[in-house]
Design goal:
Number of strands: 0
Largest sheet: none
Number of helices: 7
Radius of gyration: 17 Å
Strand content: under 5%
Distance between the termini: 36 Å
């Protein structure tokens, strides 16, 4: 999805109008707007850290690819079997952004994923897909929730 902007067609279907109204209501939620602002600030900080010479990978996508299978397989987030999953994601995040894979990086990643895991973000993306006629996005909630618990269990204060 190149644009996160809703574009209601000239002759919208009823479900698109309903999604438009729901999106308007969601956009009035001050907590949601603050979360979107934090996501934008995190994205800007990540781009500044990682430079603009190469496309940067969204941390939520890293988690989806690595933690999704572990979550589906029933691996406990606090179990030793989760260690390599956490290590793989944090190493990839560190490599992409040119940062050391340390406690500071883990706290930074945790902050970004907690914002990305807001259920209102997923609702926004689903409404946006309806309005714009896009396929429904895959839910990242199970993988994000699993990974946040796993990372939190391995991140000091």
């Amino acid at each position: 999805m190149r644009s996160m902007t809703p574009e209601l067609p000239d002759d919208p279907e009823a479900e698109q109008v309903e999604a438009w109204v729901q999106l308007a209501e969601l956009s009035q939620d001050p907590d949601f707007r603050a979360g979107v602002r934090r996501m934008a600030e995190h994205h800007a900080a990540d781009r500044a850290q990682g430079g603009t010479a190469r496309p940067l990978r969204d941390p939520a996508a890293m988690v989806r690819d690595q933690a999704g299978p572990a979550s589906v397989a029933g691996v406990g987030p606090a179990s030793p079997e989760a260690d390599p999953v956490v290590a793989a994601v944090t190493a990839q995040y560190a490599r992409v952004y040119g940062l050391p894979d340390d406690a500071g990086l883990r706290r930074r990643l945790l902050a970004r994923l907690e914002v990305a895991g807001d259920p209102r973000r997923e609702r926004y993306l689903r409404l946006l897909a309806v309005i714009n006629g896009w396929p429904a996005p895959e839910s990242l909630a199970p993988a994000l929730e699993w990974f946040v618990r796993a990372l939190r269990a391995r991140t000091p204060g």
